[in-house]
Specification:
This protein has 330 residues and is of the alpha/beta class. Helices cover 44% and strands 13% of the residues. It has 2 domains: 210 residues, Rossmann fold; 76 residues, Rossmann fold. The strands form 2 sheets. A 6-stranded mixed β-sheet has the order 1-2-9-6-7-8, sandwiched between helices. It has a 3-stranded parallel β-sheet with strand order 3-4-5, with helices on both faces. Helix 2 crosses helix 8 and helix 3 crosses helix 8. It is globular and about 55 Å long.
Length: 330
């Protein structure tokens, strides 16, 4: 199915709607910076540019979809409040957006979520409920709660509002680098790559888009609702949902030219590179695009302006701080 046919099926990601979302969220999200990849050791293309979305509000691209969804609620819905389920980053973004806009919020996350993520979400004054061992169980609980209470459920990837929000990142990238000829994007549930690539391809049909994912299966291989219980086994939990949606699957198939897989070991090596060479502390999913480049799985021959999206930076730094604190003698 080509992009025109996909947009006829999913008109909520048409370019004018993404452009409207860009104006809507502008007062609430940061235009994130660009950085040239340091050509210190010749291990990456010297002409590569990094888009540092890890420096976004709450540490990931998720703030864009969160604000776009919440800003489109009517006054009655805002007063009642909202619900969201998350493995971490979406919940943090929705919690922050709800706090900023003065909305009550209830966030469901797995009981197994990292304590750092849980603490950061709760710090925004939301009602935090930890349930189940996976995102899927937390999402099921959130869906039941939203239905029973009559509240909007802000989905992390399968909604027009979320995809329009991630689409704003594609428009911002082209505003910054109008002659980009390759964009590298990580893939989880598909909300980032589907919304962003839809925006990119509507503006620049000739642009090459390569997706990167941890694990053994790809979004192209799956069917909506498919996958093992709890998702793929990988340290990049945000890249390993159990299910994708028909909407994100259709958009990804229509817009993404190639998908490559990276291993956990390769993502950790890329995290180390980003810290050592760029002073950027990122989570595994944020390093997936660098891992694909370092392993040579992406062909850069002929590319003049490749851009790698570093999508998230919410790696727990407490062990580092604790190691320094243990050395304090005063």
């Amino acid at each position: 199915m080509d992009l025109t046919s996909v947009l006829a099926r999913w008109p909520g990601v048409a370019l004018p709607l993404i452009e409207a979302a860009q104006s809507r969220v502008a007062p609430y999200v940061r235009p994130t910076p660009l950085a040239p990849a340091p050509p210190l050791r010749g291990d990456l293309a010297p002409h590569l540019t990094l888009k540092l979305e890890n420096l976004q509000v709450t540490g990931s691209f998720k703030a864009r979809g969160a604000f776009n969804n919440l800003l489109q609620l009517d006054a009655a819905a805002r007063e009642r409040g909202i619900v969201a389920a998350s493995g971490g980053n979406h919940g943090l973004a929705v919690a922050y957006a709800a706090h900023r806009l003065g909305l009550p919020a209830t966030i469901f996350i797995p009981a197994t979520a990292a304590p750092d993520r849980a603490a950061r979400i709760a710090a925004w004054g939301v009602r935090l409920i930890q349930v189940g061992e996976s995102y899927d169980e937390a999402e099921a609980a959130a869906t039941r709660f939203a239905r029973d209470e009559g509240l909007p459920n802000i989905h992390p990837f399968d909604s027009d509002g979320t995809l329009q929000g991630t689409g704003t990142l594609g428009l911002e990238l082209l505003d910054d680098i109008p002659d980009a000829d390759l964009v590298l994007i990580a893939i989880g549930g598909g909300g980032l790559i589907a919304g962003m690539s839809a925006a990119l391809k509507q503006r620049r049909p000739d642009l090459r888009i390569v997706g990167h994912r941890g694990g053994r299966r790809t979004l192209h291989d799956g069917q909506p609702g498919s996958g093992p219980r709890g998702g793929l086994r990988t340290i990049a939990t945000t890249l390993a949902p159990r299910a994708v949606s028909q909407r994100t699957l259709d958009l990804t198939r229509a817009c993404v030219d190639e998908i490559v897989l990276v291993t956990d070991t390769e993502m950790v090596a890329a995290m180390r590179w980003l810290w050592a060479e760029c002073n950027q502390l990122v989570e595994p999913s944020g390093a997936a695009v660098i891992a694909a480049l370092q392993t040579g799985r992406v062909d850069l021959i002929g590319c003049r302006r490749p851009v790698a999206l570093v999508c998230g930076g919410n790696a727990a730094a407490d062990p580092v701080f604790d190691a320094y604190a243990s050395q304090i003698s005063d």
